[in-house]
Amino acid sequence: MKEIHHWIDGKEVKGTSGRFSDVFNPATGEVQARLSLATRAELDAAVDSAAKAQVAWGSTNPQRRARVMMKFVDLLNRDMDKLAEALSSEHGKTFPDAKGDVQRGLEVIEFCIGAPHLLKGEYTDSAGTGIDMYSMRQPLGVVAGITPFNFPAMIPLWKMGPALAAGNAMILKPSERDPSVPLMLARLLQEAGLPDGVLQVVNGDKESVDAILDNPVIQAVGFVGSTPIAQYIYERAAATGKRAQCFGGAKNHMIIMPDADLDQAADALVGAGYGAAGERCMAISVAVPVGEKTADALIEKLVPRIEKLKVGPWTAGDDVDYGPVVTRAAKENIHRLVQSGIDQGAELVVDGRDFSLQGYEDGFFVGPHLFDRVTPDMDIYKTEIFGPVLSTVRAGSYEEAIGLAMHHEYGNGTAIFTRDGDAARDFANRINIGMVGINVPIPVPLAYHTFGGWKKSGFGDLNQHGPDAFRFYTRTKTVTARWPSGIKEGGEFNFKAMD
């Protein structure tokens, strides 16, 4: 059985805990590897080593750090297929979707090549007589990233790129469900010229997470995962004086106005609702058609599209629409929530409960589901299902539709499909959600803007990637400098305002 270990000081290091986690092939249900789980002592030792390596890295000029990012981009493009294959084999994503996972992370690394500009401070000449003032952005030191299973390339790249380009050392604790790609990324960074010890990949479970939160050397923690864990990490990090940026769950609504192009809307819903088996924090899981006529027409267009979806393993070709979910427990939880929707009175229009794939009966495949006439009191509406389940909530008016999204506890992403510019503008202005699409179903910003949700989808005041990432991974130091000339007049004992 293959064993997967840690990446410490530029080399693979075997774990010493004797504890392992199984890494599955989601398509077959078979265990394909065992992953070492770190002890608190192992985590602390990795932090101590990273702190020593960070001193020289933080002193390296930003342009030289950016050149490492530049070379890293070349290597990511070179090994794109290898990374995607490893990702698909452990996560279950289709091969094109896995390449997209790597690509959206790579784009953030491209943005990080601009670190010399992003790290520039401010300068005021002659703030007072003979006095100049300037600010500097300096690295925090050692920071940590705790990343999820559903984007095992993209989210680690979102975390490590800005953190390293800003001069920090990083402790990366990836998901134990699909750990191979983060280790491959660490090797590529070494090849790109990153000094040993500046990036440490420590595999683990809650023990490692708590060790990160308790370690006094770690200055900041970035997390993506479920809302309960995001809130736990945010609160515990704050209690120990760490900067924290924690992103949680989602329940993303797409409002379909009566004037929308319903073929376009239906295509968008199918892609956004069922892509990656619904295991995306930006997946559309709630369709909100406005008016009964719109709702009836939308359901009529959705059903044949959903029934044609091809579900299968990534090895079955690029025409597979989505693959298995990540674990058997995830599959069972999806089926439990689907049953709750039926029990609570929703209409199951497309029933995927009996889906089975010949030759892959033990895999974690879930058929597509479509609910109609869902109401806000139902569990399938309130809960993030994280599976191929689309719920339709009918709204009588635009105000009712926007109210549904605004009153839900999650606020990650949302979208409106309409030809009415006034409605779209009003929606974008009023909605209390972090990322908004107008005729765009999954409004994930490009790398030079920032990604982040509101309400219980995000904890912390700075977002991922874009300029916010460099603000998060640096602290500002402001210097007031005076170079006296002439005869010294002695000390001043009052707090004197600038002349």
Descriptive terms for the model:
single chain; 499 residues; alpha/beta; Aldehyde Dehydrogenase, Chain A, domain 1; Aldehyde Dehydrogenase, Chain A, domain 2; 2 domains; 7-stranded mixed sheet; 6-stranded mixed sheet; 16 helices; 23 strands; 39% helix
Short description:
This protein is of the alpha/beta class and 499 residues long. The protein has 16 helices and 23 strands.
Can you put this structure into words, describing what you see?
Residues 16-479 form the Aldehyde dehydrogenase domain. Its EC number is 1.2.1.27. Keywords: NAD, Oxidoreductase. This protein is α/β, with parallel strands linked by helices and 499 residues long. Strand 2 (6-8) and strand 3 form a beta hairpin. Helix 2 packs antiparallel against helix 4 (95-112) and helix 10 packs across helix 11. It has 2 domains: 2-248 and 457-479, Aldehyde Dehydrogenase, Chain A, domain 1 (3-Layer(aba) Sandwich), CATH 3.40.605; 252-438, Aldehyde Dehydrogenase, Chain A, domain 2 (3-Layer(aba) Sandwich). The model has no long low-confidence stretch (mean pLDDT 96). The strands form 6 sheets. A 7-stranded mixed β-sheet has the order 15-16-17-14-13-19-20, sandwiched between helices. The protein has a 6-stranded mixed β-sheet with strand order 10-9-8-11-12-22, sandwiched between helices. Strands 1-5-4 form a 3-stranded mixed β-sheet, covered by helices on one side. 52% of the residues are buried. It has 16 helices and 23 strands. It is globular, with a radius of gyration of 25 Å. The chain is 39% helix and 22% strand.
